[in-house]
Amino acid sequence: MDKLAPPERRGEVTAAFTTCVYTGVIVSAIGVGLLSDALALRVAFTAVTAAIAACAAFTALWNARHREE
Question: Domain limits at 43?
Answer without folding.
Answer: 7-67
